[in-house]
Protein 1
Amino acid sequence: MIFDLHSHTTLSDGSLEPHELISRAVEKGVDTLAITDHDTLDAYGEIPPLNGAINLIAGVELSTQWQTTGIHVLGLNVDLDSAAIQTAAQTQSGARLERARRIGERLEKKGIEGAFEGARELSPGSYIGRPHFAQHLINIGRVNSMNAAFKKYMGDGKAGDVKQQWADLPQIISWIRDAKGIAVLAHPLKYKLTRVKLKKLLDDFIQAGGQGMEVVSGQQQTYLTRDMAQLCEQKGLLASCGSDFHGPGKPWSELGVFPSMPGNVTPVWDRF
Ligand code: AMP
Ligand code: MN
Ligand code: MN
Ligand code: MN
């Protein structure tokens, strides 16, 4: 059984529409898929009839910050009709718009005018994020690739990296739990924290009601999977796994393609 509990559509920064993503997941042999767009549930308004081809788990990837680090928390198996998750999406979308304005102002100081308007035009739904600014910078010829855009303007510590706009970690987790979902720390290795800091983050996450962590996030080396599984077990968390697929040819894993979950952990789907 393949569980892929982390993926994106065009309603955030993925390149496949929900129906295309679902078809591809079926093709790739995924049995259970969670669509987890950044800070929006818009994809769930565009789900085609599934006819039993795949099991879809309602999810979202919420942005927040811990100390000075931007982090992501997955809400899995959330009740889409709950006031809590709808408030979460609305509040975070509002924060994104506000942040996008500030990103625009910061880029203007770098001599790039109209970036906010440019990015907003590229965003079809309620998600507006750094990838839209990066694409705009490519479109106006400032840079010639996504990578260059992030390296020069949009990446961590650069002008376009505006933090501190999100609801805080306890609020994010409360929204997920109030929506009867499971709060899972996404890709713990992506934050490049020291061991001590990662453990502190997990402690704070658990203290705030967090219930799981991604033990497997896309392709990762065996020793890291073992290490994450051990940490997960030590902290008494549920274990999740997913590709974080953003689209064909994009620098994330293919749907369903990642190492299998180690046996010493309790998978998050035991609670679905
Ligand atoms: P935001 O959610 O607005 O902070 O934008 C972050 C998103 O940018 C992440 O979810 C990634 O999908 C994307 N991203 C981050 N770094 C890169 C990069 N170097 N190249 C392409 N996309 C990136
Ligand atoms: Mn993304
Ligand atoms: Mn993420
Ligand atoms: Mn993601």
Protein 2
Amino acid sequence: MLITRETPLREKSIVLIGFMGVGKTTVGEMVAKKLYRSFIDIDQVIERDFGLPTTEIFKKYGEEKFREYEKNTVVSYCRQRLKVISLGGGAFMNDEVRKACLTNCIVFYLDVAWEEWKKRLNILIDSRPVLQDRSIDDIQKLFYERQGLYAVNHSKLRVDERSAEEVADYIVESLKLSWEIHDPQ
Ligand code: S3P
């Protein structure tokens, strides 16, 4: 049997997934700080590379082009160690992205109840192209459709009314516990 050199658990990058507006960026930044790692926000990388906000990228180049670039960006960062990476809410719908994240990294799903998420819609709508021109029923449908694919993860936690700091602490504590159990030093 071939012996493959696996990345030690302690060095695997952490990936945060979940629907728009659950706090992946804020929590990711905090987790990175607490673990002394560098933080990568995939949307920020894409916006920097295009020199445009996501809404403008969608308008100028179309969603397909955005998704292709998003996929390549995620796959390339996922292969690196010791990062904390926040994905845009739609990225994990792509098969290659899911596979790359689940194989190379530890994936945390930040889950939120629909009723709780609905309260955030007003502050999200202008900056999220996929929410524009959709009825609330369509958004709810998208929310539940995506849950099916977010469900494939390594760890899931409900954010609901928890603060970003509480969520970040939970992630860091559960990582440290799993490192001690599965990769003791
Ligand atoms: C998207 C979510 C956004 C951004 C883009 C598309 C989506 O990221 O990638 O607007 O399809 O859910 P956030 O999840 O950070 O809002």
